[in-house]
Amino acid sequence: MPDAAGHLPFYYGSISRADAEEFLKLAGMVDGMFLIRQCLRTLGGYVLSMVFNLQFYHYPVERQLSGTYAILGGKPHCGPAELCEYYSKDADGLCCILRRPCNRPSGVECQPGIFDNIRDNMIREYVRQAWKLEGDALEQAIISQAPQVEKLIASIAHEKMTWYHSNTSRDEAERKLYSGAQPDGKFLIRERKESGTFALSVVYGKTIYHYKIEHDKSGKYSIPEGTKFDALWQLVEYLKLKCDGVITALREACPNGSTSAGICSAPPSLPKNRQASNHCDGYTPEPSLGGEKSRILPMDTSVYDSPYSDPEEVKERKVFLKRELLLIDEVELGAGNFAFVKKGVYKMKKRQIDVAIKILKMENENQALVKDEMMKEAEIMHQLDNPYIVRMIGVCQAECLMLVMEMASAGPLNKFLSSKKDEVPVNNIVELMHQVSLGMKYLEEHNFVHRDLAARNVLLVNQHYAKISDFGLSKALALDDNYYKARTGGKWPLKWYAPECIQYKKFSSRSDVWSYGITMWEAFTYGQKPYKKLKSTEVLGFIQRNERLPCPTDCPKEMYELMLDCWTFKMQDRPSFENVESRMRIFYYSVAEKTEGASSASANENTEG
Fold it and tell me: How far is CA 488 from CA 121, 454, 472, 481, 491, in A?
């Protein structure tokens, strides 16, 4: 997977902040002089380092799930080059505009990071084994899937590092470190007896020091009270540059004798294939290379990638669409008090896509108010671009106001599950709810509060692909805000709301987590309504008595435990969506692996019989 900044002459790759400042010094310290380097803390991210008034400024550039790049609080851009071009015309929060690139001196090569050397092989093996692909099909899958898979791969990349010693006791670690020379900074990382926890063992002054590595609820790694990182290898690379709570900087790895970086197998939790016997209407399973029938996956559908994944389409992207590019079918998908939804086709530059068109009813008495609300919904949705969120293509103002959204033809999750209970196994529900957690994690990362997450607002492209919809109540929070406080009540879905929403009209990502727990309950009960015997006004008292919805029949205990955590009364004690997604992912792969193992055993028994 090529580096998005690799072609830029002012991109230095994996260099330290000190090295970046040294290059800028050597180049003359001119106001607006800048370079780009790899960011150690965020996967796929960069740092813009620049000079102003003889001082250095460093701005992290985050790669978002949509594939765009943005400085915190700034506008998203197609790539690092486009970002730099924008800031060369408008400072927009920087210390000054970018004026002069600090190009790499002759003979200075772009420095690859430690993860760069093994990432591509690991992603390739993961996609190959997960979807059983080869040749051109494999290459196309890698292109579309790599951004989604990269974080998962990064979380287990430490297993490929020479310094990683799994299942190594403290005494054994000391024996290994004392073997041979013992220079200051010689180190290894070992797995502790407590599953999933690690320790750093490092030599200094011929003495070995041991440090516990904390792994918090959000999935971050750190030395106690130190800087936190998404991956273990990021922490190690950082400690090579700074002590940060360790007695000395890390220097020489104590080799484990077996790891060969760059040669990698699939993650241990990865199922060997992910077939399923059931599928919904709306797609046809395609044969795999082995001649078997395999179900379609999100990445195989036309609605997985952004409609604007082509840079040429991005240039043309506008909120308002031309009426002549929109074909409206007579088929009505649904209707409400103020609008109805029809099928349609939107003609883009190079292709046309199926869309759902939300059309404002002309005879509505409160048309001006409803139109204003629809435009607010459009403004929210237009900022979002994620495979697990229904994307808004644009707004069309013609015979009436129309919101044009991508199609999810299998309909709402609750109706689908209630009508196909015998066809949808529990592991399929886990899969769909994991996808919902990915979409909600994206909203959390981008400071959006949904306020109406429920199974009715999760739409299915097919039985194995879910998207979050209906952003009519959603709010974008200011960067420094943790919650939104509604000024008015209105008709709210109280049975999906957290206590602070009902009591104080306070909404946050943590209140969305509560709603996610209710949505999980709906899914595992195959579309039942929550708190069936209670009126909406009685729900808060039920919660305050520390009562909760019961565990659905056949629901895995791990899933119900997650629901209960989502329904923690105090907002601050609930898990984040980053934590929820991590737990859903781990459980989903473990269930998929067991299902595959059982299927293989059954097939073997049938063959032998």
Answer: 53, 21, 15, 19, 10
Look up tokens 């709402």; give the residue.
412
pLDDT in tens, 403-436: 888 888 899 999 999 999 889 999 999 999 999 9
Place 372 in a pLDDT band, splitting at 50, 70 and 90: confident
Q: Based on the number of CB atoms within 10 Å of its own CB, is 205 exposed (0-12), middle (13-18) or buried (19 or more)? A: exposed
**Do strands 33-38 and 100-101 pair parallel, antiparallel, or not at all (unpaired)?**
parallel
Q: What are phi and psi of 378, to 5 degrees?
A: -65, -40
Per-residue confidence (pLDDT) for residue 314, from 0 to 100: 59
CA distances from 327 to 306, 357, 391 (A): 20, 10, 18
Scanning the structure block, which residue is given the tokens 């939300």? Answer: 358
Query: Of 230, 385, 452, 512, which is the active-site residue?
Result: 452
- For residues 16 and 28, give the distance between their C-alpha atoms in angstroms, rounded to a whole number: 19
Residues 479-491 have a mean pLDDT of 51
3-state DSSP assignment of residue 143:
helix
**Look-up of token digits 């998404």:** 230
* Confidence band for 601, pLDDT divided at 50, 70 and 90: very low
Gap between the Cα atoms of 473 and 275, Å rounded? 37
Amino acid at 156: I
Residue 453: how many CA atoms within 13 Å on its side-chain side? 33
Nearest to 50 by CA among 42, 63, 39, 60: 60
SS (H, E, C) 52-103: ECCEEEEEEEEECCCCCEEECCCCCECCHHHHHHHHCCCCCCCCCCCCEECC
Q: For position 317, what pLDDT does the model report?
A: 63
d(C-alpha 274, C-alpha 318), whole Å: 38
In the residue annotation, 480 being an active-site residue is answered as no
pLDDT at 282 over 60: no
Position 148 scores a pLDDT of: 64
Interacting residues of 38 by C-beta distance below 8 A, sequence separation 6+:
12, 13, 14, 15, 45, 46, 47, 111, 113
Distance CA 172, CA 378 (A): 60
Q: At residue 293, what are phi and psi to the nearest 5 degrees? A: -90, 130
Length in residues, the chain: 609
Rounded-to-integer distance, Cα 583 and Cα 591, Å = 12
223-265 residue pLDDT tens: 988 888 878 888 998 899 888 889 999 999 999 876 444 333 3
Which residues, 6+ apart, have CB-to-CB distance to 538 below 8 Å? 531
- d(CA 408, CA 461) in angstroms, rounded, equals 4
Nearest to 307 by CA among 293, 291, 318, 296: 318
Q: Which residue type sits at 238?
A: Y
Q: Which residues contact 489 (CB under 8 A, 6 or more apart)?
A: 505
Q: For residue 397, give the amino acid letter.
A: Q
The pLDDT, as a whole number, for residue 150 is 73
- The answer to whether the beta carbons of residues 193 and 170 sit under 8 Å apart is no
- What angle, rounded to 10 degrees, do the helices at 509-524 and 577-608 form? 20
Residue with tokens 């020379």: 181
d(CA 436, CA 200) in angstroms, rounded, equals 36
Residue 14 near residue 113, CB atoms below 8 Å: yes
